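user: Here is a favour to ask of a fellow structure person. I have my own habits and do not want them to colour yours. Could you put it straight underneath, so I can go through it closely?

assistant:
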Amino acid sequence: MASSVDARARGARIERLAAEWLSARGLTLIASNQQFKGGELDLVMSDGETLVFVEVRHRSDIRHGHPLETVTATKQRRLVHAARFYLARNRLSCPCRFDVLAVIGSPPALDFEWVQGAFEAF
């Protein structure tokens, strides 16, 4: 059984690869792994004038379901809560979007599925 340290390191690596993949598609990384009471933001990126909160979901395979299925209504509420904290802490008022990036496989063989505007919040 993998330790939580291994899982955290693996998650950080997947998030780094996800940020690189999104950057190659025109987004700009602003921040990663932003922790807040009651939630966390994996990636904060910009798409032109829009601030994009990206939830990265990884599975090595889809035997137990697709990673997109793991972004439940509860998870969405936590993401919105964390985004509000981020905006307030940084005194930002700008258009925002919530994207989900599903990552399937193991590096270097990864498949990405990017859902822009995966859910509404504001």
Observations:
- The chain has two helices and five strands.
- The two ends are 40 Å apart (CA to CA).
- Residues 4-119 form a domain with the Trna Endonuclease; Chain: A, domain 1 fold (CATH 3.40.1350.10).
